[in-house]
Task: structure prediction
Amino acid sequence: MWELVAGCADGELVSAAHVCQAAVVAVEVDGAALSVATRPDRRQRAHATDAVAALLEEQQFTLGEGPSIEAGASGGQVLVADVSSPACASRWPMFAPVATAAGAWAVFAFPLQVGAIRLGTLTLYRARPGSLSGEQVADAVTLCRTAVAVMLAAGQTTPNGAASDQGAWPLGGPGEGRIEVYQATGMVAVQLGVGLQDAFAVLRARAFTEGVPLARLARRVVDRRLRFHPGDFPDG
Result:
């Protein structure tokens, strides 16, 4: 599996992108995304192979529900063979219709972890319903271990084992709107006089209500084009 990942890197410093590309090939899925998270309101997409995979991650982050959220919280695999099933509609009433509308009919989320420490998730999707085989699940798990190894060895070696002086962070560095989300969360907390978790919940609810990505809403807060007032925060 490492040879497959290194082949995708083709001599470059191995990154999240190469792990995701290898996952698409090995597990025979249509797309993959890798995200890192240290807590529910601290989730950053490291890479997505296509627009659908990126949308799935963004919507789960915004809505606070979905396979990746559950896999990250529980530390277990969440394998959904048919997102359109009634069970999924009941389990994730907001995420399920968004996923199928985007063309993701099967979603498989795997936690990235070292011991009891959870670092993020690898999420795969297919454009058709269907389960993974035992071998495909095993390959995905192996790729998760590879992703963790890449994270821990960031900027240290190239695929052929030579030392690297690029100083690159394999997960693509901070960004993709997440830093602005964190900044906006702090600003909203001050504006409302609440804790960070409650402030993040307010941001998420507003983004869902307006039907916009959380990062876009956060940018408005950071740019001071949007301000929250105590009356915006619901009691309880």
User: Anything to note?
Assistant: The beta strands are 31-39, 42-48, 78-80, 106-114, 117-126. Residues 155-176 have pLDDT under 50 and may be disordered. The two ends are 49 Å apart (CA to CA).
